[in-house]
DNA sequence: TATATATTGGAATTAATATTTCATATTGGC
DNA sequence: GCCAATATGAAATATTAATTCCAATATATA
């Protein structure tokens, strides 16, 4: 194998497209197949790929050799590497991006970092979400007269989104904002027939904790979204979700929390529709 | 192979975690290795994997058999399938989830749908973001005296997050909220030395459009985040970003917009620090 | 502590897969 | 239309990899 052998998929792809016109019929056939079905090349055996592409295994090997590889196996490595790269653990990618951003690799690295942090967080929560807790939270919120939404600072955007979505779904809700300093009074109206969604992450906003405590003491059931079982919110909550958001450049992602919040909201709307139908029918 | 053999990676993972405690030492060792390095299982040979994990090839096969597979090869299929799946177009996955949710497959499907919508949106924006526009926007915002942040309704959570992050980075900013109905006056203070981040998606909130128009007429440069070149925001903006968010159950994701917003904010902070250093040094 | 049982290591065996070879077919140049 | 060069197909071979087997070791049980 000489030095000009394509080592990464993109180079390989470019090389193939470049030579396409000058390739013999069967070789061109397998070349086209390779670019169209890269996954098959990555996973198949020489025989299976050759069959799918309608050529002989030997043609496949000749194709590889024409490209400078010493056989099908080394060509296949490139196709496998591609899947690995794409799929390389988000954590590793994040670490790499952080290092890149550190050394001043430009602003694109910052953007990539936030995208990676969001993706990591989403795949984490997708794995970690407990179905039973989720159902429980939905049931609890669906039968509430009014849903109070409680969050400050970094979590406030989530709360405001929940309030917006609940509004669109015509579900009565109250966003507990601090603007006029009337939170205590607002909370005072809540009864055990209502429910609360409280969101707070370390370092927990004191106001959120305090208000959650107060409302819990009134017997209002609480669904908490927070970051660990040591969270002060967890002790007040009937149901709580642990959401681990990845951070980048000192700013934590918010995507997993958002996704959970949206799902909760829409599921509650769904549940109410179901229950409503059942009552009527 | 009986019928209870895990066919997909997540089931397999759960099965392994479930039995983890009761597995013999070497089997547990390979089990841990498998979950930590799924890609190696997908691509390696029995011998190479066994060596990396520090066990004998036969142990690897016993591990597979304990899980109900008839050999290493069929276990490996699951790990390969995972790479294929992950790589399969998000659009397809979203469509499948939508169908599932439609037919009332339970609330988990709703959650999965929102996670998938967020992931799709993130990978889309990651591909679509124009580096030059991004740099331009950063430059424009970095030299602003005050950054005005303008968004209502669905986009408001993004605006409130930007305001929070800018605050933490000690960058002067003004969130244009409608609470007290003083937006016009607030906007009146903006000068061409300031800058605006305006966010709006179809159906564009009339207030956002109107305020953006007003502030543009005062010569204040505008960075817009919106959803198409037909957006009324685009015509007022010096730089604008097109963000295509996937939707689920009638609610659009907000993750891509969030990631872009966070990246913009942090990059502006970064740029200011650089410029500051250069001025001093 | 003795015995049965389960687990592990490593070599032998079997299966599979890639590669080579060679006869045959096709193409391009004169 | 003929010859040389090139390309192709199919089977033979060499290589690599998975699996099995059995002896050795460790673990649990009575």
Description:
2 copies of one chain form a homodimer. Chain A has 281 residues and is α/β, with parallel strands linked by helices. Chain A folds into 2 domains: 9-87, Orthogonal Bundle (Arc Repressor Mutant, subunit A), CATH 1.10.10.10; 129-280, Rossmann fold, CATH 3.40.50. Helices cover 61% and strands 9% of the residues of chain A. Chain A is built from 14 helices and 7 strands. Chain A has helices spanning 9-19, 25-36, 38-43, 46-53, 57-66, 72-87, 90-102, 107-128, 131-142, 156-168, 183-188, 206-217, 232-236, 255-280; strands at residues 147-150, 173-175, 195-199, 222-226, 239-242, 247-248, 251-252. Chain A has a 5-stranded parallel sheet with strand order 2-1-3-4-5, with helices on both faces. Chain A has a two-stranded antiparallel ribbon with strand order 6-7. In chain A, helix 13 links the parallel strand 4 (222-226) and strand 5 (239-242). In chain A, helix 9 (131-142) packs across helix 14 (255-280). Chain A is elongated. The mean pLDDT of chain A is 86. Chain A binds a DNA duplex (30 and 30 nucleotides) through residues 24-27, 45-47, 55-62, 71-73.
**Which stretches of chain A of 5+ consecutive residues score pLDDT under 50?**
none
- State the CATH class of the largest domain in chain A: Alpha Beta
Percent of sequence in beta strands of chain A: 5-15%
Q: Give, in spatial order, the strands making up the sheet with the most strands of chain A.
A: 2-1-3-4-5
Supply the helix-strand structural class of chain A.
Answer: alpha/beta
Oligomer: homodimer
């Amino acid at each position: 194998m000489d030095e000009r052998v394509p080592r990464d998929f993109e180079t390989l792809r470019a090389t193939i497209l470049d030579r396409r016109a000058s390739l013999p019929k069967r070789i061109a056939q397998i070349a086209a197949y390779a670019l169209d079905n890269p996954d098959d090349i990555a996973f198949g055996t020489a025989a299976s790929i050759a069959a799918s592409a309608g050529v002989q295994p030997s043609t496949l090997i000749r194709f590889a050799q024409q490209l400078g590889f010493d056989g099908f196996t080394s060509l296949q490595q490139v196709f496998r590497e591609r899947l690995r790269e794409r799929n390389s653990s988000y954590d590793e990618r994040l670490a790499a991006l952080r290092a890149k951003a550190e050394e001043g690799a430009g602003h694109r690295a910052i953007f990539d970092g936030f995208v990676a942090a969001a993706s990591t967080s989403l795949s984490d929560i997708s794995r970690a979400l407990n179905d039973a807790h989720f159902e429980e939270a939905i049931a609890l919120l669906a039968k509430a007269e009014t849903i109070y939404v409680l969050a400050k600072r970094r979590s406030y955007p989530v709360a405001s989104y929940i309030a917006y979505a609940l509004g669109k779904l015509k579900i009565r809700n109250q966003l507990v904002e601090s603007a006029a300093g009337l939170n205590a009074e607002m909370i005072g109206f809540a009864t055990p027939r209502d429910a609360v969604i409280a969101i707070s992450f370390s370092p927990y906003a004191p106001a959120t904790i305090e208000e959650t405590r107060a409302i819990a003491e009134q017997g209002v059931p609480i669904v908490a979204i927070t970051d660990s079982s040591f969270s002060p919110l967890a002790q007040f909550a009937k149901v709580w979700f642990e959401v681990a958001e990845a951070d980048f450049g000192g700013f934590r992602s918010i995507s997993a929390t958002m996704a959970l919040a949206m799902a909760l909201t829409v599921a509650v709307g769904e549940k109410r529709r179901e229950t409503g139908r059942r009552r009527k029918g």
